[in-house]
Amino acid sequence: MNLRDIKKDIEYFVGAFVDDCALFLNVNPGKQTEKITDLIDKAVDLYNDLRDSIGKAEGNKKAYFDNLRKEMLTKLDGLYEELSAAVKEGVEK
Fold first, then answer.
1. pLDDT tens digits, residue range 8-28?
2. Would you list the domain boundaries of the chain?
3. Residues 6 or more apart whose Cβ sits within 8 Å of residue 76
4. d(CA 63, CA 1)
5. Within 10 A of 3 (CB to CB), how many other CB atoms are there?
6. Which of 30, 38, 26, 36 minimizes the C-alpha distance to 93?
7. What is the pTM of this model?
8. Which residues contact 93 (CB under 8 A, 6 or more apart)?
9. 29-55 pLDDT, tens per residue?
10. Are 2 and 68 in contact (CB under 8 A)?
């Protein structure tokens, strides 16, 4: 794993989450708008935090980037769970 790969992964995975949020908002106008925009804000904060963390790599960079990728995926899983709950709630209303 190198710096270019981790940057691409962060762009791709966080971008995919934001795209999923935007898709829900476009398909379901007016439903759960505030919750979904809060999730988008959280994703942007995660993106910024991860990009800031990239420059702080010291020592074994491969291990550092592997841990950073695991952190990203764990946090994105949490965001997707929140998105699923909001979608389910929005569709049932």
1. 999 999 999 999 999 998 988
2. 3-92
3. 13, 14, 17, 43, 46
4. 9
5. 12
6. 30
7. 0.89
8. 31
9. 877 889 999 999 999 999 999 999 998
10. no
